[in-house]
Design brief:
247 residues, Carbamate kinase, two-stranded antiparallel ribbon, 36% helix, 8 helices
Length: 247
């Protein structure tokens, strides 16, 4: 068991982690990096693992980001969000296939009703986790105007995960953007209320508020650093832990 006493974890993974530096939407080396990290956890700990995958590598509903990508043109929000939901399904299918071909049993469950993808049901998801499958949740929440961050919190609560682990490309939560400010301060631990008061961009406000209401711990860490996730579960103080004041 990990020193953090986590028996069941849910990892929120951006679709951008499936891409490469050359802007290829799907990269085998990137997928293998994800596989190696999850494989390492399964080999080291007897824990249940599920993922919520985004679709930023394929299509992003964020209209501000679209203007950068499509030369000042933005698609409408609702069809954009729906396209993003389908993008998460594509990512989930590809990731699960790679896992299964490399002897890491995986299942894809979707909130979008597609004939050839199993629809998400909490009871069934927990059965799969008990049997040792790594689960990949796709389709977001099936609703527009809702991010995959919110989907991650909801799914973590539905499968009764001990912690939500958010993979990023920075070392945790800072008081300001570390890419712009060299004096940005990294928080090792912070409570929900302070994070909201200081407007720290951990995840979107609705997702974060839901986690706070249900006292779901969140760990934000740098997924780009190999082995970081395993070290966190071994008890090392890496990334940022977000919990209630008294928890």
């Amino acid at each position: 068991m990990p020193k953090g006493n986590y028996n069941k974890i849910l990892i929120k993974l951006s679709g951008e982690f499936l891409a490469d530096k050359n802007n290829n939407s799907i990269s085998i080396s990137s997928i293998d990096n994800i596989y190696q990290e999850i494989r390492s956890l399964r080999d080291s700990f007897k824990i249940q693992i599920s993922l919520v995958i985004g679709a930023g590598n394929i299509f992003r509903g964020d209209t501000s980001r679209q203007k950068e990508r499509f030369k000042n043109f933005s698609f409408s929000r609702v069809p954009s969000d729906k396209a993003g939901m389908l993008g998460t399904v594509i990512n989930g299918m590809i990731l699960a296939d790679y896992f299964n071909q490399n002897n890491l049993p995986a299942r894809v469950l979707s909130m979008v009703n597609i004939d050839f993808i199993e629809f998400f049901q909490a009871e069934k998801a927990n059965e799969y986790l008990e049997k040792g499958f790594c689960l990949i949740f796709t389709g977001g929440t099936s609703n527009p105007y809702v991010s995959t961050d919110t989907a991650a919190v909801i799914k973590a609560l539905e499968v009764d995960a001990d912690v939500l682990i958010k993979a990023t490309k920075v070392d945790g939560v800072y008081d300001k953007d570390p890419h712009k400010y060299t004096d940005a301060k990294l928080f090792k631990r912070i409570d929900y209320k302070k994070a909201i008061e200081e407007k720290l961009q951990v995840m979107d406000l609705s997702a974060f508020s839901l986690a706070m209401e249900n006292n779901l711990p969140i760990i934000v860490f740098n997924f780009s650093k190999k082995g970081c996730l395993k070290k966190i579960l071994q008890g090392e103080t890496l990334g940022t832990l977000i919990k209630g004041v008294s928890s």
